[in-house]
Amino acid sequence: RLHLSSSSATGYKNVCNHGSRFQARRWVDGRQVCCGYFGTAVEAAVAYARAVGEYTPAVAAEPAAVAAEAEVVAEAEVVAEAEGLRLHLSSSSATGYKNVCNHGSRFQARRWVDGRQVCCGYFGTAVEAAVAYARAVGEYQP
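Above: the chain sequence. Below: its structure as tokens.
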């Protein structure tokens, strides 16, 4: 569960701007502890929710590697949903997402700009790459 705040400039409790990034913080034994720095306020809010124990990944009783992957996927989907992004599914792509392909052990997101393919970056999961592609093309769902 994300903690919304009308008094915070970011819109999330214990998430603040830190230069061009966003910092998630929480209180432990009367002092503030940094949960990390993130590219978006939503990612920082997810990290805060996880730190205070109110974020539950979709998979519970599976081997550690599968559970870790499921947690990353669930987090990316939460971020996409919170930002209002529409992930572009594709039945013809091996990854399941439009303009996301395997690149060694990582996933690459690509988009077309002025008739040329441009790389949006390399990511650990296909879902993370799909979120990056959705951000890059700027398509939001209502």
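The first strand starts at residue 15 and ends at 18.
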